[in-house]
Write a structure and sequence with these properties.
534 residues; alpha+beta; two-stranded antiparallel sheet; 20 helices
């Protein structure tokens, strides 16, 4: 090996920490059948090679056979000499290390040659059909290896929809981002026959981060290398959220594993680590009152439903559901927030004129922090803060609608209006039901309080989310419905027997009425559970 080749190899090797290098050495020795003392291994390291048969034998169970061949072709694509004199049938250690370096540590430019060879054995442009087969194999391999390694985090292939359809749906969604040099995006049969060069694939890999994440999962979990080291990004750690509330209950979710992965990737990062089942029509019955009782004040949620025609769709609500006869959606402007804070504080200051207050409002993303320098009793400061949260919690532009079947897609905020969320019950003058996007009588997604009926009216598109009609028919009949809390539940929902401060302080109730926040959810919360010890 020449000096230039050695320098390239050493540069790639230096990307790995010492413990990572040891992990890679161990794997290569296993694949190449190395034996003997450490000194003999080091002396012969460059002479040892890996064959396709050895690779297939090692990952026969963790990965599908077709992915073994694709990984092998990717390793062979590493040109050590720079002469492109043809692909060798055996993989040298230098090729193996550079392959690992480029796919796990490299950018889109470094990955592209490998991915092109994983798509096709031959050089040159690749057809859309070949890219589709590669993408489906990649997604199938992720599902397979996570199931094999028992890394589904509480989900299983038994308590979710058949992933076969989900694999094709996710692959189709990712392929929709393929575009030619002129910016056009071929679709349908045209896409399958269109040729894409290396630059188009490189742009696709850059635009679709799931491809790199999936390759990393396949390598780490499939080859069982670097999987336990702190090198993994949050994209990998939160690829699948932890699942609570479905195990052992005899329910099969409306989600499949690929759709969970895709929808979870669109959630705010702080909510991606856990999903908890709050409501299932198959468990809790077909009742709008039951639905409200299980989802009100439970934090951000995902609503998913299936109509009688088999279409599956839903929406993500970025804030807790509250029952009120108006849309839940506000712009988080400084003026509106500061006005509310002043109104709350003035009411208390009027009763406590001897005390001085200094309110500092810090805005960070979508979160508002309050710091009160006051001489009020602690419980009063806590009351003000809780009231503030109750008054400001509402949907924001992180909400979205989505479709799972027959196609997988996410539809995000347009900026046209702030009609993010709506939940109302027991009113005579306003519509009663759960809705997201659009306007009254023309929601992007609507579940009527007369449970079982709904609509998705979006012609041509929902004004709030730019979503098309999500159901098979504009007015649909509901077959099944689920609601999942995402992220950690609000603290008050996890404390047995503990009443809200609104339940014990009549001043709080009066203050809510004064600022136009009547307790519309009264009677809809679940009864407090008794202590297990009682």
């Amino acid at each position: 090996m020449g000096n230039a080749e050695s320098n390239v190899y050493q540069n790639h090797l230096s990307r790995f920490l010492p413990e990572e290098q040891s992990d890679i050495d161990r794997l290569f020795d296993t694949l190449s059948g190395s034996s003997g003392s450490a000194g003999e291994k080091n002396a012969k390291a460059t002479k040892k090679t890996v064959t396709l048969a050895a690779l297939q034998a090692y990952i026969r169970e963790p990965l599908p056979e077709q992915m073994s061949a694709r990984l092998y072709n990717g390793m062979r694509s590493i040109d050590l000499t720079g002469k492109s004199s043809g692909l060798c049938e055996q993989i040298a250690k230098e090729q193996f290390v550079i392959f690992m370096s480029n796919l796990l540590k490299g950018n889109a430019d470094e990955k592209i040659t490998i991915i092109m060879r994983m798509i096709s054995k031959t050089e040159g442009p690749v057809k859309g059909k070949q890219i589709q087969e590669f993408t489906e194999d990649l997604i199938m391999s992720v599902v397979h290896v996570l199931n094999y390694r028992k890394e589904l985090k509480g989900w299983s292939l038994e308590n979710t929809r058949d992933s076969t359809i989900g694999i094709k749906a996710l692959a189709s969604q990712l392929l929709s981002e393929l575009k030619l040099a002129d910016g056009t995006k071929p679709a349908g049969p045209q896409l399958m026959e269109t040729s894409f060069d290396e630059h188009a694939i490189q742009d696709w890999v850059y635009q679709v981060p799931q491809i790199s994440v999936f390759l990393s999962v396949v390598i780490r979990q499939g080859l069982h290398v670097l999987h336990s080291l702190p090198d993994q990004t949050k994209d990998i750690v939160n690829l699948l959220p932890g699942c609570k509330g479905i195990k052992g209950r005899g329910v099969v979710s409306l989600f499949d594993i690929p759709s969970i992965i895709y929808i979870n990737s669109h959630l705010p990062a702080e909510l991606q680590h856990k999903w908890q089942l709050l409501f299932s029509s198959r468990l809790h019955g077909e009742s709008f009152s039951q639905l409200c009782a299980h989802i009100v004040n439970k934090g951000p949620c995902i609503v998913i439903l299936k109509d009688l025609d088999g279409y599956i769709f839903g929406g993500f609500a970025s804030h807790t559901w509250e029952v009120k006869p108006q849309f839940q959606g506000k712009t988080s402007s400084f003026s509106s927030i500061s006005w509310l804070c002043c109104k709350l504080l003035i009411l208390y200051r009027y009763k406590n004129t001897a005390h001085l207050m200094d309110t500092v409002i810090l805005l960070s993303g979508h979160t508002v922090f309050l710091y009160f320098q006051v001489y009020f009793p602690v419980e009063k400061v806590t009351l003000i803060f809780e009231l503030f949260l109750l008054c400001t919690q509402s949907g924001d532009n992180r909400c979205f609608l989505f479709s799972v079947f027959p196609s997988l897609a996410v539809y995000t905020y347009t900026g046209y209006n702030d009609h993010y969320m709506y939940l109302n019950h027991g009113q005579q003058t306003m519509p009663n039901g759960l809705g997201m996007g659009g306007q009254h009588e023309y929601f992007g997604l609507w579940i009527d309080s007369d449970y079982g009926k709904g609509h998705s009216k979006a012609k041509p598109r929902c004004t709030t989310y730019n979503s098309p009609q999500l159901s098979a028919k504009e007015d649909f009949t509901l077959d099944a419905m689920e609601v999942w809390a995402v992220g950690d539940l609000p603290e008050h929902t996890g404390t047995k027997g503990k009443k809200s401060i609104l339940d014990v302080d009549p001043e709080a109730q009066a203050l809510l009425e004064m600022i136009g926040k009547p307790r519309q959810s009264e009677g809809l919360r679940e009864p407090l559970e008794e202590d297990e010890d009682n």
